[in-house]
Amino acid sequence: MEEEQATIESQFFAFAKLFDSKNRTGLTITLWNSDYWMRQASLLDDRKLTMTDTGILFNKFGKSEIDINEWLTFVSELCARKEFNEERFLEVLTNCGLPGETPVEVPQYRKFFSTYKSKHALVG
């Protein structure tokens, strides 16, 4: 049996339902799920593309979830701002595998605080 070719629409649906397939319809995606998808595709790297970049543009929609047409507008604007090739960007998102197929490291800023030592503790 031949495997069905991934599309940006099928990937959107899969990542929109990520971690909550019972309650989510897959018709809208949250910023967190969109960022997770970009991390899995190795596009969101915290250097050239950051969570601040995605957050600022996502919040222009004024809601916590956006549909695929709004998301494609979001990606288009993101690519224009960051000078990415939009066609290539969408191709990478389409071909990065289903959610969870590749381990994704979501930065935990708490690590910094759990190993933090005051300057007084570091001196003599």
TrEMBL record:
<dbReference type="InterPro" id="IPR011992">
    <property type="entry name" value="EF-hand-dom_pair"/>
</dbReference>
<dbReference type="InterPro" id="IPR008907">
    <property type="entry name" value="TPP/p25"/>
</dbReference>
<dbReference type="GO" id="GO:0046785">
    <property type="term" value="P:microtubule polymerization"/>
</dbReference>
<protein>
    <submittedName>
        <fullName>Uncharacterized protein LOC113504151</fullName>
    </submittedName>
</protein>
<dbReference type="Pfam" id="PF05517">
    <property type="entry name" value="p25-alpha"/>
</dbReference>
<dbReference type="GO" id="GO:0015631">
    <property type="term" value="F:tubulin binding"/>
</dbReference>
<comment type="similarity">
    <text>Belongs to the TPPP family.</text>
</comment>
